[in-house]
Specification:
about 900 residues, Calcium-transporting ATPase, cytoplasmic transduction domain A, Calcium-transporting ATPase, transmembrane domain, Rossmann fold, eight-stranded mixed sheet, about 20% strand, elongated, binds adenosine-5'-triphosphate, cell membrane, transmembrane, ATPase_P-typ_cation-transptr_N, translocase
């Protein structure tokens, strides 16, 4: 199919060939069959890493090699139990690592799948929005500004259509497209003006195409191998942690070498000292951390989906937590985007319109009285022009009326229907000849309609101030006359009054056009128009936004509204929603034009609302805030917003009203277009970072506890309180599940009461570093105290004479003499305290400042389960037959367990007391 010169053929001939047409498109059944035949419309992705390779990758680690070497050496020396036990631990560690990484990989894959693009396709005579991957050859696809072209197609119709084909041809200037057949069959891709290609985007205008090829058969598919995106992108935190992790490995290896040398100096056998050091190194290095970070990020991102936030680029999650400014569009994000025409200014009078929503039931009244005949005719005329310059459709869904398309246009259709005018009927009488589509920079649109008379009819609608500028005449009392200064003053006054009441105002104009050409230049059609009237519609604020704005302010986040709407409308909505606090002001795009960049940088923090702005202004605003050192989140929907969205620290696109191009440029998509969801995303972003910090805090303080215990014992010349196999076990029992459970902890309730985190902030700053060492010291202290305590009460010296025991047992032991306590029992106790105190400590890490009893013991059930499971495993290995030989432990008595639990709670109790003092 790819060898045919589609561009030289008539569109109708192509459609015949492909068994389709522009009236009904393909039937669902045919589309289903073609999907089976041609496959999904997608580019083949590079194979991910296979599970086997992922598992084998777990052994590709220097420390693990040493551990395996140690196993082999132990085996040769006949230490079979040790050798097998260490091997088992290595394998269990690899399995845990594999599960964590596999899960992380799967979660990331799920995220990638969520960002599917949709296309509007004609099937069974109806327009459907379907995932672009389901498009098949023969489908009729509708295109408009901001859409990505989903497959290669031949245009059947186009109105001012331009596409950007840089992804294929490298040419970034938009190409003008038309549906006319071309002559030269050998034209290069870039010159095939009647074709559109997968992966290119529509920059302006609209069109309709019939799909010719899909997936790997498209022009993009042919070069897909060359442009496939390189692997996954690490977040700044992941990159920082990698560097930090390397430093940590050197530090741990340094300490472990010291312990090794001390052991040798104490004349421990070389193998034992070696095994001990290797085990300690394994335990001290938080090798599971990268996977935990990925899982915390990926699961957090999945949690965000439930709050209507779709993260497209993982690094955005971190930036979200640092957001200091949110710049938001008004229409649809702060407001409901459910418009109803409330007032119509026509024939010099302001008429009230009753009714709710898009329901076409309602009346027109002037001063609470029915309209006079001439007023009724003039109102109907204004609405008629609005309907003929309109791309929306009203649809009845059971009992409610819905709009397919732009709500502003839907509101006009509904108001017109109240006057008895239905789009379908009018369109038949006045078929479309050409269109200059709406664009938020132009703030207007126009159509040229064929009429039953010997003229065309130009219909224009747009922002009232913009429309008035295009007019030279006015239609009033059923007659045409020149538009005077007084008329303009009256119209502007009326516009201001309506905007003051937070109404969105649309101006309506028209003119007869004596032209033969079907696609005339807007410079001709959109000038010397006749002013017909104004339509004012309500767009109520979303009820949850006011609270969300207040939450932002409490969280130290500045909120800014940027809208294309009238200054007064923006002002009224801004006031109502709490944007205009602290004497911050409202300015218009024209004022912004007069401010040089340096002045704007100084003033930007004083401006809360920008009205009548264009996409270009948005870019300036983002740059000014960024120059101030702020982390800026910026929303966008239209194709022109893409540069500002890209420039923002966090570019946000709208899931419902957003164009593909803006979505593609954005870091995240708000699936319900709601400002409150952006605030929820910031909250989650802060929470995810906080949780990762908790996991790191926990892992490092526990590891510090293990190292310090062995270091102190070594320095004090005590028999080592833990065996290598025990240290390896601790690594499994405490590092895995509890650290993961902390990584997915519930977001702290006070998280939005704290100021935003600085983006340059180190995840482990000086304070946290000191806290980690201190808590590690407490864990080591509890372990050593439990060890010495059991030695003391099992020694031959009578308990009670503590000073005597110190002088006669402990000090001589430190100097190389005997120690008569029950060493095996003391080691079992120390081993248990090391594990259980770390489990208690995991609860400390849930919040560095607030007591567990304030945040709630049961608010992280996963942590309770994880610690409960680890505790049960610890008790089990002490009592399960044979495992005592492997782990070199012995069953303990009740009084040992009481002591173990007593010492294990030490770190928790001390931290709770400190938190208590910190609070007061
Ligand atoms: P925001 O940027 O907050 O979403 P907005 O939706 O009001 O603002 P635009 O879509 O750029 O901004 O609209 C700017 C102006 O253009 C509106 O105030 C309105 O007067 C006019 N307008 C909006 N939609 C249409 C439309 N479909 N046809 C004609 N004019 C429109």
């Amino acid at each position: 199919m790819t060898d045919i010169s589609w561009h030289t053929m008539q569109a109708s001939e192509i459609m015949r060939n492909l068994g389709t047409n522009t009236d009904s498109g393909l039937s669902h059944v045919e589309a289903e069959n073609r999907l089976k035949k041609y496959g999904y419309n997608q580019l083949e992705e590079k194979e991910g890493i296979s599970p086997l390779m992922l598992f084998l990758g777990q052994f590709n680690d220097f420390i693990v090699w040493i551990l395996i070497a140690a196993t082999i050496v132990s085996g040769f020396l006949g230490e079979w139990v040790d050798a097998l036990a260490i091997l088992a631990i290595v394998i269990i560690n690899a399995i845990i690592g594999f599960i964590q990484e596999y899960r992380a990989e799967k979660s990331l894959e799920a995220l990638r799948k969520m960002t599917t693009l949709f296309s509007r396709v004609l099937r069974n005579s109806e327009i459907h929005s379907i995932p672009s991957r389901n498009i098949v050859p023969g489908d009729i696809v509708l295109l408009e500004a901001g859409d990505y072209v989903p497959a290669d197609g031949r245009l059947c119709s186009s109105f001012s259509l331009k596409t950007q084909e840089a992804s294929l041809t490298g040419e970034s200037t938009p190409v003008v497209k038309s549906a006319e057949p071309l002559q030269n069959p050998l034209l290069p891709i870039g010159d095939r003006e009647n074709m559109v290609f997968m992966g290119t985007s529509v920059t302006s205008g609209k069109g309709m195409c019939v799909v010719i090829t899909t997936g790997m058969h498209t022009e993009l598919g042919k070069i897909a191998g060359l442009i496939q995106e390189a692997g996954k992108e690490d977040t700044p935190l992941q990159r920082k942690l990698e560097v930090f992790g390397k430093k940590l490995v050197y530090l741990c290896l340094g300490i472990v070498t010291l312990v090794f040398l001390l052991e040798l100096w104490r004349k421990d056998p070389l193998l034992e000292a070696f095994l001990m050091s290797v085990s300690l190194a394994v335990a001290a290095i938080p090798e599971g951390l990268p996977a935990i970070v990925t899982i915390a990020l990926a699961l957090g991102v999945q949690r965000m989906v439930k709050r209507h936030v779709l993260i497209r680029k993982l690094p955005a999650v971190e930036a979200l937590g640092c957001t200091t400014v949110i710049c938001s569009d008004k229409t649809g994000t702060l407001t409901q985007n459910e418009m109803t025409v409330r007032k119509i200014f026509a024939n010099g009078k302001t008429v009230d319109v009753s009714g709710t929503g898009y329901d076409p039931e309602g009346n027109f009244a002037f001063n609470n009285m029915p309209l006079s005949e001439i007023d009724r005719r003039m109102v109907t005329f204004v609405l008629g022009i609005g309907v003929l310059c309109n791309n929306a459709h009203l649809k009845r869904d059971n009992t409610t009326w819905k709009v397919i398309g732009d709500p502003t246009e839907g509101a006009i259709l509904s108001a017109a229907a109240k006057a008895g005018l239905w789009k379908e009927g009018l369109q038949k009488k006045f078929p479309l000849a050409s269109e200059n589509p709406f664009d938020s920079d132009r703030k207007k649109m126009s159509t040229v309609r064929k009429t039953p008379y010997s003229v065309f009819l130009v219909c224009e609608k747009g922002a009232a101030d913009v429309i008035v500028k295009d007019c030279t005449k006015i239609y009033i009392e059923g007659e045409l006359r020149d538009l005077t200064e007084d008329d303009i003053r009256v119209i502007v006054n009326e516009n201001n009054k309506m905007a003051d009441a937070a109404l969105r105002v649309i101006g309506i104009a028209f003119k007869p056009l004596d032209l033969e050409t079907l696609n005339p230049d807007p410079a001709i059609t959109e000038r010397d128009l006749i002013f017909a009237g104004l339509l004012a519609m309500i767009d109520p604020p979303r009820p949850e936004v006011k609270d969300a704005v207040a939450t932002c302010h409490k969280a130290g986040i500045t909120t800014v509204m940027i809208t294309g709407d009238h200054k007064n409308t923006a002002w009224a909505i801004g006031e109502e929603l709490g944007f205009l606090c602290n004497d911050r002001k409202v300015i218009e795009g024209v004022e912004l034009d007069t401010l040089p960049a340096e002045i704007l940088e100084k003033e930007v923090s004083k401006i809360a609302v920008y009205a009548r702005v264009s996409a270009e202004h948005k870019l300036r605003i983002v740059k000014a805030w960024k120059k101030q050192g702020s982390v800026v989140a910026m929303t966008g929907d239209g194709v022109n917003d893409a540069p500002a969205v890209k420039e923002a620290s966090i570019g946000i696109s709208m899931g419902i009203t957003g164009t593909d191009v803006t979505k593609e440029a954005s870091d995240m998509v708000i699936t319900d277009d709601n400002f409150a969801s952006i605030v929820a995303a910031v909250e989650e972003g802060r929470g995810i970072y906080d949780n990762i910090k908790k996991s790191i805090h926990y892992l490092l303080s526990c590891n510090a506890g293990e190292i310090l215990t062995m270091l102190f014992a070594s320095i004090c010349n005590l028999p080592l309180p833990l065996f290598p196999i025990q240290i390896l076990w601790i690594n499994i029992a405490t590092d895995g599940l509890p650290a993961l459970a902390l990584g997915v902890d519930a977001v702290d309730t006070d998280i939005m009461k704290r100021p935003a985190r600085r983006s340059a902030e180190q995840i482990i700053d000086k304070n946290l570093g000191l806290l980690i060492v201190f808590q590690g010291f407490l864990i080591a202290l509890s372990t050593l105290l439990a060890y010495l305590y059991v030695l003391y009460y099992t020694s031959s010296v009578k308990p009670g004479y503590l000073h005597y025991w110190f002088l006669n047992e402990l000090i001589p032991c430190c100097l190389g003499g005997p120690l008569t306590g029950d060493l095996e029992r003391a080691r079992t106790a120390a081993f248990s305290v090391m594990v259980i105190s770390q489990l208690f400590h995991s609860f400390n890490c849930r919040n560095a400042h607030r007591s567990l009893f304030k945040i709630g013991i049961f608010t992280n059930k996963k942590l309770l389960l994880a610690t409960g499971f680890s505790l049960a495993m610890q008790v089990a290995i002490i009592y399960i037959p044979y495992s005592e030989n492997v782990f070199k432990v012995m069953p303990l008595e009740l009084k040992d367990w009481i002591a173990i639990f007593g010492f294990s709670t030490l770190v928790f109790i001390i931290m709770e007391i400190i938190k208590c003092f910190k609070k007061s």
